[in-house]
Amino acid sequence: MTKRTYQVECNGESRSFPTSHPFLEASASNGEVLVLAGQWPVDAALPQAADRTAIVVELGLECLAVYVSGSPAPSNLLGFCRWRVGTSEPSDLVELVTLPETEPSAVLAARTMFEQAGFTVSRCEDRAGRIVDRLIRPQFNLALNAVDDGLATPDDLDTALKLGLGYRRGLLRLVEEGGLADHHRVTAHLFAAYGQAAYVSPRSAAAAAHRAATIEGAG
Amino acid sequence: MGTGIAITIARAGIPVTLYDPVPASLARGRSLVADFFKSGVAKGKITEAAAQQAISLVGYTDDIEQLAGVTVAVEAVFEDLQVKHALLQSLFATCGAGVLILTNTSTLSITEIAAGCDHPSRVVGAHYCLPAPLMKLVEMSKGMQTSSEAWADAWGFEQATGQHPIETKDRPGFILNHFCIPYHNDVIRMVEQGTADPAEIDRAMKSALGFAMGPCELLDLIGLDTQLRASEAFYEVTNNPRIAPPPLLRRMVAAGQLGRKTKNGFYRYDRDAVFGA
After folding, report:
1. I need a surface site. Which of A6, B122, B130, B203 has the fewest CB within 10 A?
2. Closest Cα to residue A185, out of A154, A213, A146, A217?
3. Measured between CB atoms, which of A93, A164, A196 is closest to B204?
């Protein structure tokens, strides 16, 4: 398959690429795909790139629709995010977000570009939480609440999940390594989006967020 | 399930009798035991001598009276309170009041099972994972009337048979089903809502979390009918919206799309097509 060319433009801090990465270094001017990494202001027009096969803008908690003004949306616009838990290293999974207007050729170009760079790509519609956060955050909440409820000790809980369900690192260890305050940030956002009890922030995560905010405010 | 549990016991060098009132089921159990150990020898996981020794330790009977003298009984019968009550009463009558009874229930309360027999202090929850010979985890839970002696004996038994007991509470789903049933329903809803295709979901979860199997692959392996049955059973006692069976699940089961067992679920197993194709 033909090697996809792409150009990366960075604006501010990127959660998907917090440090240098071969993907960023392979950027070439006038690449077929324009990658907008970092945080792009939603009230400013994205770089005009109607001539590019695809424009892929990095997403945080926000949906891709945030970057669309007017209707219909550009047919070459997609969103992307490397899944990550808090401050842990970003995974090699790229969630590729499409809109109803997104052309198949744009999807193929973006997908191939990431895959050729060694990432695993999963495509999804433009929904809060995309795929992984939407499915795993309720599980993190279940685990944190289970400890509070005395269902099992934290170690026993993670051991059971590893031995019984194949969670390689358990759930508690994973969410705690990423930071409970950050988990609160994500799960609270999903609760606001869906209003479902599964996304209510557990006591320990809410407390961690409150502590972090208090300490930051005092500093 | 009972056969798998019997294998774990025999493999640990402990004589075990597989009891089933239906002779055909016993014959199937005997075959499964032989096949399991034959496969183990072929894969180099167990020596021929050890396999033969384990096989020789498994007895089979369709007469419950043959269980007289048994000191530990593991029940893995149909998930119905009345069926379990009747069996436990028969076991106490045959084996004596001191027999330790481990119940492999996955949906019923240990306390409620124990309350239906004359010696509730001797009943302990011991939920094995499928397949028992390969999954060491056993979720152990006390009923409200379980004695400390029975608990210690049950824990020791599980360890003696090479299993890994974890203590949990007498609550619906214990640990594993508490996590996986709602999660699997969330996945089905995601497919139902068109957020992502099964293959995309599986790829995402395997890559991000290191799962060996994606959730749709796992649902096909477990069986969509199993997921539906478990959801209905747990929803009845929890009223947890996540556990309510999604409409797509009911429709797939109604259409016979049960997964691997019908060669058609989220994936087709007779060709490369995926869900909806």
Report:
1. B130
2. A213
3. A93
